[in-house]
Amino acid sequence: MTTLTSQTTDYRDQIQRCAQTMALGCVEDVRPFLANGMTVEQVKLFTDGNLDKRFEKVLDQVDLLKTAFDNLDDFVNKYILEVPLAAYDTGCSDGDRFLRWLKLTHVTSPEQQDHIDCQLARNEVENVARRNRLGHVRFQELRSMTDRLTADLHTNPKLRIHLNPIRTWGTFQTNVLLDEESTIPADVLFFANGHQIRTSAFDDDGKYFVEILASHGPFTLTDWKRLDRSTSRSDLIEFCLDAAEMGLVAFG
């Protein structure tokens, strides 16, 4: 039994080593394991095709970085030759791994760093939407009624305020991706807006309102005012109307 287990383990290790070296295009390393009649050149055709496909997928996943990195193609090519594709990786997870690899292995400017963080945040919004598809669909249904219900916010005490569940926070150190008058560093919220991803910078008050909704909502305007007695009703209404217009909140 011990011998069989050892042989099985050795065979599994060999398979893993072959898979990793092929994922990096190192075809010479698999020469001892080739079947009769199989050549290294044939293996290279296979691995080159896979590397080309992976290159295109990663490049597509980090399209936002093209304006910030003149040599983005070189970085992606270096990455796929250094970091093997893990089993069951998707294009999105490989793109995320490239971005984190880029942050760890290369010196980037603050503007480039903002582009990396922006792409990571946008990817995270997509991940949240996949994990919470039902919540996303439900919120978009509420959003479809926003225009009709906005006027009721002042008069309907039962109308509840819902925060978009598909969101994530980020921080920009520069205003390269913001308006020139934006105060930096800026807290930035990324959130789904239909089939798009929207970005909005918030001051301290705006971030506070979002966090209150995230931790205690959904609730009515009356409940919110009872919870936060320091903020005027008119300020809460103004925030809700602005947030509803950008797709961050909905009423129902």
What integer value in Å does the Rg equal? 25 Å
Average predicted confidence as pLDDT: 86
Overall structural class, as computed from helix and strand content, comes to mainly alpha
Biggest pleated sheet: 3 strands, antiparallel
H-E order: HHHHHHHEEEEHEHHE
User: What share of residues are in beta strands?
Assistant: 5-15%
Give the helix tally: 10
Shape: elongated
What would the CATH topology of the largest domain be?
Answer: Outer Surface Protein A, domain 3
Distance between the termini: 65 Å
The number of E-state strands comes to: 6
- List low-pLDDT spans: none
The CATH C-level name of the largest domain is: Alpha Beta
User: What topology, given as strand order, has the largest sheet?
Assistant: 5-1-6
Count of folded domains: 2
Per CATH, the architecture of the largest domain is Alpha-Beta Complex
Into which percent range does the helicity of residues fall?
Answer: 55-70%
